[in-house]
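Exercise: predict the structure of this protein bound to pyridoxal-5'-phosphate.
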Amino acid sequence: MTTIYLDNNATTQVASEVLEAMLPYFYELYGNPSSMHFFGGQVGRKIRQAREQVAALINAEPDEIIFTSCGTESDNTAIRSALATNLGKRHIVISRVEHPAIHALGAHLVKEGYRVTELPVDSDGRINLDQFARSLTSETAIASLMWANNETGVIFPVEEAAAIARNKGVLFHTDAVQAVGKIPIDMKKNAIDMLALSGHKLHAPKGVGALYVRRGTRFSPFLIGGHQEKGRRGGTENTASLIGLGVACELAARNMEKENTHVKYLRDKLENALLTRIPNSRVNGDRVNRLPNTSNISFEFVEGEAILLMINELGICASSGSACTSGSLQPSHVLRAMGVSFTFAHGSIRLSLSVYNTEQEIDFVIEKFPVIIERLRGLSPYWGVGDAVCATMET
Ligand code: PLP
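Solution:
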């Protein structure tokens, strides 16, 4: 059985170019980049190059990039730094649809006595910028809105939001873990103070990330230890992975065009075919302002988990809700925030593509999906019995 991997928002395959660049740094070139000798120095130079490659992808300066262990660490560092450098301010603003790296941190901060405003989204998963502006006060230490949603792919107008925040003297962070490498980002053209990214979403390995911190932004480290990252993040560097992240960023810049043409074409072909061939199906989220690779699609009166099990038998990998919440039968907090009805929310599937998917794979999925949904609906006591039952289910 061949694998058809449509779960690239959960994680991606390490690109062969990335793996090749990393391998020498596990075995032959194992020096510590902080060492004074030539053996460590050559690794240090390679890390400088990786920092330049990451910076180039988002048009930032190399010294604005702090390497971290993952997107979650980058997000936590940004928020904690803002709170530590604005000690009198005990309010933060986030959205209801943030990834747990921000959302769960917000809940944690409430327990620590901070006030957290969670902005709602509309039925298409969009934020209201007027409401965002009104939520910022002289007490607000930081506002954090994700660039693109991991479950729906919906893109927030973070550049406009950052301009509003700057006008009000509030720091602005964005969780761009799903956006970096998929859509163009130019940090010279916006007022975003901090931005989080993660290697394993753009064909670098898991366990490596970066935090962009704009020059001049006051910063307080999250991990306190050695002098690595100019004292901004202690801990001996994950050298091979940092080098891999650099190569992945260079590749992403080269593949950006393909991501927004070929990948988008395949996603649209798949989505339109499923919507046409399967009755009572819908796309969740704004279909215009959306990542080119993501489709969150619901099939009424089936369980997303049941679909996953059936497609799994055919070698097709997808996700229901975010990977972090799979295993729980609660509909995702993102779909709930959008007000997606019970019968649709439970039958939601996230299909997320990459530049490595082929049209042949997509045609196979288009052929198999309608049969699977029909079979599952045949087993459902609710399919075809009318609205009365749906109303009872929603209570
Ligand atoms: N933010 C978003 C939007 C994500 O999708 C993810 C991962 O799923 C993260 C943050 C966390 O990144 P990491 O897995 O590198 O900690």
